[in-house]
Amino acid sequence: MKVLVIGGGGREHAIVWALAKSARVSEIVCAPGNAGIAQSARCVPVNTGDLAAMLRVVEAEGPALTVVGPELPLSLGLVDELERRGLRVFGPTQAATRLESSKSFAKEFMQRHRIPTAAYAVCRSLEDLRRELPRFAASVVVKADGLAAGKGVVICNSHAEAEKAAAEIFSGALLGTAEKELVLEEFLDGEELSFFALCDGKHAVALAAAQDHKRIGEGDTGPNTGGMGAYTADGLMSAGLEQWLLQNVAQRVVDEMAREGSPFQGILFCGMMMAAQPDGSTRPMVLEFNTRFGDPETEAILVRLESDIVDLFDAAIDGTADRLVIRMKPGASVCVIAASGGYPGKVVNGQPISGLDSVDEADAVVFHAGTAAKEGAIVTAGGRVLAVTAVSSASTSTTPLQNALGKAYDAFEKISFNGMQLRRDIAWRALRKGL
Ligand code: AMP
Predict the structure, then answer these.
(1) What is the position in ligand 1's atom list of the atom closest to the CA of 187?
(2) In which band, very low, low, confident or very high, does the pLDDT at 236 lie, cut at 50, 70 and 90?
(3) Residues 6+ apart with CB under 8 A from 222
(4) What percent of the chain has a predicted confidence (pLDDT) above 70?
């Protein structure tokens, strides 16, 4: 069958890589793709912010299945349009995507359905914010309502800082466009965990747990980024916690979205905080939902996937996820991002990347995030450039996680480009716990 993937980052490269292993797939097209994806799929240019242009690509290509990677096309209603035309598509509708595209919708939904989350207030003006602030402790979080590619969340240590952040969100100084709504939220202290469920409108099944590193600096310091690395490991989440998250978060989302008339089909990413409680225990609370594969967690998850990825997509579309058995390689996996100099600020594109061909895929898979082909060479084209991903099922002298980390970092002995930044401490929390 012919499959079309919408998107052009590391996540989409990992999806294309998994599709290329499927015996059921004969042709892969990716729009717009990137220089790495072009090695295993035909890439066609498209602006993923232009709904009509994406529909033209689907019409011209006539795929048996379309897989939508990024949040923007989902929020524009690409899935709705394809379903209306009777076409097979993996991903949630525009209404179901509100769980990600509107933080106020997500918070109100969670409150309506008793899904544990931080205390919050939706504010539409600075006056609203000033009225609500006295209910909150000094540490608060201010979040722009809409999609902001990780840049719309400001963690504040005082109410004065919260007012400043809110003023910047309302004026457009923070995101470039003025927001009409924000969410003010209680600050939660604890360790974060990402839980991924595959959903078919009726059922949610557990796919994997991962941890990512959003900050640019080692030790999780400095400004937020799109993600500097991620990892998965057996034991990262106990079977009990997985069951709890499935029942009390993912399945409840699926049940209640269906009851509210917006069935959820696709990947539900639950960004959890294992919030520290005064008695020393932890309580899982939802920080955010994403309605698609996360990036860079997807790279780390898909290198462990042994099942045919098309079977996952089919089950989600056909409502048969409850009968699906998802097989994953045992062990651990790691994804280390190589970013351009200056990221997450302004970057200079067009830096030639050397050593890409010297990494053996048996050791590490070099997924491309922001790359382009120029005069026969591969050059940088974006903030996050490469997602170097390694998996390990067993190792004699180290844990699988340590082994996977070794393989990913070894690849960086060979790969380089001008200004390359990477974090050398991916998975430090898990290593400290002996994983
Ligand atoms: P979000 O997009 O809502 O997940 O926020 C991005 C990041 O901000 C999260 O991954 C957390 O690191 C941090 N964050 C968001 N909300 C909170 C909160 N209520 N308490 C502490 N940290 C938060």
Answers:
(1) 20
(2) very high
(3) 215, 216
(4) 100
